[in-house]
Amino acid sequence: MFMSYEEALHWIHSRLKFGIKPGLIRMQKMMEKLGHPEKEIPIIHVGGTNGKGSTVAYLRSIFNEAGYSAGTFTSPYLETFNERISMDGTPISDQSMIDLVNRLKPIVEELEETELGSPTEFEVITAMAFYYFGRIAPPDILLLEVGLGGKWDSTNIIHPLLSIITTVGHDHMNILGNSIAEIAGEKAGIIKENAPVISGAENLEAALVIGEKALAENAPLYELNQEIIIQEAAVQEDGEVFSVTTPFSAFKKMNIHMTGIHQMKNASLAVMAAELLNKDGIYELSEDHIRKGLQEAYWNGRFEIISEVPKIILDGAHNREGVESLVNTLLRHYPDKKIRLLFAALEDKEYSLMVSQLEGVADHLYFASFDFPRAASAETLYKSSNHSRKLILPDWQHGIKKIAGEMKEDELFVITGSLYFISQVRKSLIEKNRLC
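The structure corresponding to this sequence follows.
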């Protein structure tokens, strides 16, 4: 039995050596041993390539505004591991983590001795989340984020109130497939019989796959640009303002503080979800709750302004679609700024393509590596770039401080790439106050 948080966390991380094992049977066995807590929780299942976390944040804020408790299961984390399992935006306590690990450990060890083999880290943390929300602290709603793909993801043992697929793009192609259609097929795996599905997938190929799966499962389908229409989108100083119509209502001049066209789309999916649940009488979510919920929502590490003077923005753009959204947002909100840009990525990502996209907006382009097993070297990223003003930062902490100190008023500093990198940068800059 573990007595300390450090021991419990070390045991969870020790599961990383078992890698990724697509499949549901180990999860099903663990849930059986725990008495199926996952069957006692009302759940919204959220999948997609990008936008999952932001959509969860919008929904959590809407539910909280209406007076409901909202549990969330998300990944990765930015500050503490505990935030992956949170209630109303607050990560569970260290003691809860210890208790959950002690509850799961004997079940995991028993499973290790069978032909099914050892559960992975993600399977263990998913099982912990289900047990926590099903037995220890039941929420009014659980917003459950898919870890990878959908069809064979550890979270996909539930039958949700509804499912949301935010986007379908090029990520984890070594696991999910080499084409958009194949990736969409994996993500559409979260669609369940008779449970409504909301889709933000704008790619025609992906939309067709999702539509076919929804039809096969008799799942009512609500699609962005079809049943969900965004209108009158405009930039405001601290975010976006837009109108959205659904089959049930028209919402005029909605304000969000998260920045970018993609965030208006994520917010619109959350609006549609709230509308469906309200229409079915499952929850009471008024226009006021929806409007204020969107306005109050935040998601750290996504176009997050962490310093006004000098202007520094963190954004976890870690795949080609994420970088495209970042570039578009920079051009949309800061067309007159000169941009200094620091990029770090994992070696198994399409970093060359991402670097090429970033070169179009960067006046100065910097590259760094960071402490993570799959981090690409700064030299590798540097060689992939044709930018005329590029530089390696051997020590990114010192480099960021130096760049911040020499910035002019017409400049903007954007730090982007892997969310694991953004997590480390955010901790360094905010907790340790290393800008000055």
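The longest strand covers residues 229-236.
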